[in-house]
Amino acid sequence: MIKVVVAGGGWSGCAAALAAAKAGAQVLVLERTDMLLGTGLVGGIFRNNGRYTAAEEAIAMGGGDLFVAMDANVRHKGISFPGHHHASFYDVCSMEPLVKRVLQNYGIDIRTQARVVDVQKYAKTIQAVILDNGEVIPGDVFVDTTGTAGPMGNCLKYGNGCAMCILRCPTFGPRLSLCAKAQVKEFMGQKTDGSFGAMSGSCKLNKESLSLELRGKLAKEGAVVLPVPPNLIKSGTLGKKACSQYALPEYAANLVLIDTGHVKLMTSYFPLNDLRTLPGLENARYEDPYGGGVGNSVRYMGIAPCNNNLKVDGVDNLFCAGEKFGVLVGHTEAIVTGLVAGNNAVRHSLDMQYLTVPRVLATGDYISFVKEQMISEAGLRLRYTFSGSVYFERMKAIGLYVIDRAEIADRVEKAGLTDIYSRCLV
Ligand SMILES: Cc1cc2nc3c(=O)[nH]c(=O)nc-3n(C[C@H](O)[C@H](O)[C@H](O)COP(=O)(O)OP(=O)(O)OC[C@H]3O[C@@H](n4cnc5c(N)ncnc54)[C@H](O)[C@@H]3O)c2cc1C
Question: Pick from 405, 404, 362: which is nearest to 384 by CA?
Answer without folding.
Answer: 362
